Amino acid sequence: MKVHVLLSHLNADELYFTNRTTVVIDVLRATSVIAQALSSGAKEITPVGSVDFAMKISGDIKGGQTLLCGERNTKMVEGFNLGNSPLEYDDTVAGKTIILFTTNGSKAILKARYSENLFCCSFNNLSAVAKHISSLTDELTILCSGSNGMFSLEDTVCAGKLIKELTKYGKNINLSDAASASLVLSKNFGKDLLKLLSETEHGKLLIENGFEQDIEFCSRLSNLNIIPAFINGSIKLLQQDSDN
Ligand code: MLT
Hints:
The chain is of the alpha/beta class and 244 residues long.
């Protein structure tokens, strides 16, 4: 399998993704929130690129079945129902459509929307995604959401761990330079994920802003057997075969 890693969503044009299989990663916190929301029974998650657009499409909110969710500068946007803390996405989101705006993650997913197959991955659901990908494709692009166009260590370490997990399925892996670097970084920084997330730039900001528990949540490895798949504009739970 050929594996490419993009270190920020600003590094590629949206047409790059056409016909590709892509996995988007935003460990802190968008793709962790997406896995948790689906695990709690959310019907679907619609990623959006602006607060204005989120407000516009929520005009159809009927009977509380749609929730406006996400963050700006890590905090819930005024007028929204939920922020971007995975701890908020408990049973109360079951059956709901979530409109999600985040600073980097929702934009990265939209950037990759022309992919033939598009999945969301965090540490929480890494094994489930790797297993599914291993039998699906011979070429994979991993898109790290990054931080405002810049490199983010936690997303890159997660990309490296995903690659490592793929090797368990006996695939011959052919790495791009960025994929090789991700693998090395995951070996160096991926042993203690709680420590890693507590010490990255965005992790420190989340702790400063009172989201320390989110760091612990997002550091759990493969605790959710969830494959979030972007299909026709929204992210849904991919039903897995019973032998998965
Ligand atoms: C993002 O998309 O940048 C994040 O998920 C930010 C956050 O919620 O901390």
